[in-house]
Amino acid sequence: MAALSDRPVYNREQLIRYIAFLQKKCRKFTLDELEADIKKQPLKTLEKLQRRQMASVPFGSLILHYSQHHTISLDEAALFTKIVERGLGGYCMENNTFFAAILRSLGYQVLTTGARISKALDTGGKDMNGFKGCQRMWVFESRTDKESPWTPAHCFLEIEFIPNDFEVINFKTSSSRTSWFTYRFVLNSIIIDQETDAPIGAMIMIGGEVKRRLHGKSEVVEVCKTEAERIRALKKWFEIELKEDEIRGIRGMASDLG
Question: What's the pLDDT tens digit per position in 101-117?
Fold first, then answer.
């Protein structure tokens, strides 16, 4: 078993900066208030913090397309810079590795594990038994609104994955030509009610199409046909600003809009 010291954490100054980052999309609160809430109601506070995290940190393949290196680092300092200081978000292993470190730093006991994605997500819920070769596992289901049916999304065991495990998975997922992260541009940011912290929708960009989902209803708000248009859309809808060298990094890729 790996030593607990192998699990990354952040210092108090970084936690304060993280909370300031969350407040761009959420209600105002302080680190002292958060810590007091954790002592009183740890589970309820965790739920609120998770929603604020998801509203503030987009999920997507941004840096695998808009960079000169086209690689993903799970180093805790690199993640803090990318997520908090740059606001670029990340994909599953980045966002979850980062959030796990935040939770540890706040005193939560965190067990990180690997998950398998259901084929039902790719088939629009048609393949409801979409886990290839899964034994008895926990299954996480999702739906877009209260009227929609639940769709199996992920399955997972209670076996702990340590940082080295995620490094191996990350290398395959972020570099393989068969991994859709490397050839499809995707960005997804949850929208929450700033008064209640309840999720009410999402902003989604796939390729050049920007879609807004609110209260279960979706509408296409913009269709980008060029790279210049997509760069402007990233700033307008996701508040993401890229550097010039990052913008040039997508040239010649399958995801390049031209």
Answer: 999 999 999 999 988 87
